[in-house]
């Protein structure tokens, strides 16, 4: 297995903002790399450089052995790109968009139509294929956008925050799509702000901050470094929150955080087995829980443990750099 | 590092550059995009449908009697002038549309495809031919209804409209540059007007006899490409000697494209 995406020392500056500050990436064939980071960390810039949309100031990058700068046309033939906002013609129908892209990829007219029909079917858009894209829901747009990136049967697929702004159902559909892509043999680089998403889809995760890769590894390794999971229990009867907090404290040996008005008790845990113990005890004392969950650390918590600072504050500081690229739709 | 790189099989090796033939085909596909948009929302042609009607009736009845003694005589010189003016005005929507397009994601898609950088811009310009055709059909039909008569043979008429189309294509690239230059779609119109006003009014479009103008303005009208296009059109559509006007117009068209096309390409690459 070779590396189909390879980047070394990528740097890119927009005015005052150093969007990329020496990024190295290696992605093996047939795997998914999750690029995790807050807004403004440089994720989009990295994708745009790798997809030949942006020239790096320094450093080099290769896709399947082709230099993204000198052999951009070859690279473009091998990749599929789905941006954060739909790269589609809103006024055309879904089918027209796909046929147009097929024709731009030099497919004969009949073949372009056939592939468009096949992709509409596969992405459950056959019924909507004749409607203008501007009438589509967010999830449909994203699916059509991904379908549009599939027309050339790419070896490498870039998905830039493919689920941002989608409802949970649409998000699940996009996840399913990503898994199908990998099953078809594509290599995928996807950016996300959610550890949960990277954990669900990626073989490896690269965490971006301030235009650098600050951590790189498997999801399991990253979670281990990022620290503990959170146990959250919510009492169905809010007045019993106090009792619930006592039970949780006793079983975990930690002082839980209590939000009495919501009946919510949260506590960091190291041993996932504690979940079972809590459920059992609640049963014994006949305390009904409206919610019992073991949550992965959030991006903020990952950042806190990796960098000592929170992710969201940087987002505000650095949004300027990528606002030009990201501003249009959200 | 290349030793660990997964090399694609030789048969699947994608071409390294885009041939001229493919660029033409891609441009036509992208021109089709504009035409398909118009098919979905034909109301976008409302400006090029009403513009010639308003200009024709206003100028004909405001200036007709004063400039040429009667409206019929004036119509015979005004209509070719309006063909020239409308060829220019019809390009103005292009800049606005392009400026809006660039804000949306679809141009990102084009950039990520293995097509020539110029194809989306060339396609946009060619696709706008529909606007040119609309303007010319409405103008000619309305003019004919008001009493305009072609004074030459069909071949010369066709040559006249062909010349106007070439000038239109060239002028489109000015609109493209303005569209790429302007910070927002709203500013495109304002900027475009600064170009268009002196060109149309400082010409022979509305007044065939420019000898009553002050010397500096006459000097301007003499070099103004719109004057040459108008005078060529008067000869080709109505009557009279063509002189050098066709050549001057063509030279201007080539000159405009030579200057604006590279500028447009650089601006387009910058906005990536």
Automatic annotation (TrEMBL), chain A:
GO process annotations (BP): daunorubicin transport; doxorubicin transport; response to antibiotic
Domain ABC transporter: 5-235
Topology relative to the membrane: Peripheral membrane protein
Gene3D superfamilies: P-loop containing nucleotide triphosphate hydrolases
Coiled coil location: none
Keywords: Antibiotic resistance, ATP-binding, Cell membrane, Membrane, Nucleotide-binding, Translocase, Transport
Tree of life domain: Bacteria
A cellular component term, taken from the record's GO annotations: plasma membrane
Sequence intervals crossing the membrane: none
Principal location listed in the UniProt entry: membrane
Annotated localization: Cell membrane
GO molecular function list: ATP binding; ATP hydrolysis activity
Entry-linked InterPro entries: AAA+_ATPase, ABC_transporter-like_ATP-bd, ABC_transporter-like_CS, ABC_transporter_ATP-binding, DrrA, P-loop_NTPase
Record-stated family: Belongs to the ABC transporter superfamily. Drug exporter-1 (DrugE1) (TC 3.A.1.105) family.
Protein name as it appears in the record: ATP-binding cassette domain-containing protein
TrEMBL record, chain B:
GO terms classed as biological process: response to antibiotic
TM region(s), chain numbering: 45-66, 78-98, 119-142, 162-183, 190-208, 246-269
Main localization, broad class: membrane
Keyword Iron in record: no
One family name in Pfam for this protein: ABC2_membrane
Bilayer topology term: Multi-pass membrane protein
GO molecular function annotation: ABC-type transporter activity
Keywords associated with the record: Antibiotic resistance, Cell membrane, Membrane, Transmembrane, Transmembrane helix, Transport
Chain ranges of the ABC transmembrane type-2 domain: 43-271
Cellular component annotations (GO), alphabetically ordered: ATP-binding cassette (ABC) transporter complex
UniProt xrefs under InterPro entries: ABC2_TM, ABC2_TM_bact-type, ABC_2_transport, Nod_factor_ABC_transporter
Location in the cell: Cell membrane; Membrane
Similarity field: Belongs to the ABC-2 integral membrane protein family.
Name by which UniProt lists this protein: Transport permease protein
Native source organism of the sequence: Actinomadura harenae
Source lineage: Bacteria, Bacillati, Actinomycetota, Actinomycetes, Streptosporangiales
């Amino acid at each position: 297995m070779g590396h189909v995406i390879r980047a070394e020392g990528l740097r890119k500056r927009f005015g005052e903002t150093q969007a990329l500050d020496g990024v190295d990436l290696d992605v093996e064939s047939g795997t998914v790399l999750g690029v995790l980071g807050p807004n403004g960390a440089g994720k989009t810039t990295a994708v745009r450089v790798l997809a030949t949309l942006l020239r790096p100031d320094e450093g080099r990058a290769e896709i399947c052995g082709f230099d993204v700068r000198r052999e951009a046309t070859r690279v473009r033939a091998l990749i599929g790109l789905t941006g954060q906002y739909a790269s589609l013609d809103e006024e055309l129908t879904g089918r027209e968009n796909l046929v147009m892209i097929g024709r731009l990829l030099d497919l004969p007219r009949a073949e372009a139509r056939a592939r468009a029909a096949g992709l509409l079917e596969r992405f459950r858009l056959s019924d909507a294929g004749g409607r203008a894209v501007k009438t589509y829901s967010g999830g449909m747009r994203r699916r059509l956008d991904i379908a549009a990136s599939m027309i050339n049967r790419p070896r490498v697929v870039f998905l830039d925050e493919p689920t941002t702004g989608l409802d949970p159902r649409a998000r699940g559909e996009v996840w399913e799509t990503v898994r199908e892509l990998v099953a078809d043999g594509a290599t995928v680089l996807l950016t996300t702000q959610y550890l949960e998403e990277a954990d669900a889809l990626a073989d490896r995760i690269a965490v971006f901050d301030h235009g650098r890769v600050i951590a790189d590894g498997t999801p399991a390794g990253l979670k281990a470094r990022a620290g503990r999971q959170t146990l959250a229990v919510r009492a169905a009867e809010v007045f019993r929150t106090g009792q619930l907090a006592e039970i949780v404290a006793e079983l975990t040996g930690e002082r839980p955080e209590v939000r009495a008005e919501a009946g919510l008790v949260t506590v960091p845990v190291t041993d996932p087995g504690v979940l079972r113990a809590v459920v059992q005890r609640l049963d014994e004392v006949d305390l009904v829980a409206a919610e019992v969950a073991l949550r992965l650390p959030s991006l903020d918590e990952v950042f806190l443990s990796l960098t000592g600072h929170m992710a969201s504050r940087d987002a505000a500081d650095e949004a300027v750099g990528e606002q030009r690229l990201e501003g249009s739709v959200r | 590092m290349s030793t660990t790189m997964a090399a694609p099989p030789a048969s699947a090796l994608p071409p390294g550059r885009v041939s001229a033939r493919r660029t033409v085909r891609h441009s036509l596909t992208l021109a089709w995009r504009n035409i398909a948009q118009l098919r979905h929302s034909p109301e976008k042609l409302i400006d090029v449908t009403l513009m010639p009607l308003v200009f024709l009736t206003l100028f004909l009845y405001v200036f007709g009697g004063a400039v040429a003694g009667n409206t019929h005589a004036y119509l015979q010189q005004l209509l070719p002038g309006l063909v020239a003016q409308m060829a220019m005005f019809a390009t103005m929507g292009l800049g606005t549309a392009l400026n809006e397009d660039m804000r949306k994601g679809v141009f990102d898609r084009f950039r990520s495809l293995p097509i020539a950088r110029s194809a989306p811009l060339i396609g946009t310009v060619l696709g706008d031919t529909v606007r040119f055709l609309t303007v010319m059909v409405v103008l000619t039909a309305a003019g004919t209804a008001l009493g305009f008569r072609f004074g030459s043979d069909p071949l010369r008429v066709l040559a006249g409209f062909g010349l106007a189309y070439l000038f239109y294509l060239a002028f489109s690239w000015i609109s493209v540059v303005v569209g790429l230059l302007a910070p927002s779609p709203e500013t495109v119109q304002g900027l475009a007007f600064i170009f268009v006003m002196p060109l149309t009014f400082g010409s022979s479009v509305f007044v065939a006899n420019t000898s009553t103008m002050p010397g500096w303005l006459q000097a301007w009208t003499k070099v103004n490409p719109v004057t040459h296009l108008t005078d060529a059109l008067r000869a080709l559509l109505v009557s009279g000697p063509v002189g050098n006007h066709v050549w001057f117009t063509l030279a201007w068209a080539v000159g405009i494209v030579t200057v604006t096309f590279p500028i447009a390409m650089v601006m387009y690459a910058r906005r990536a």
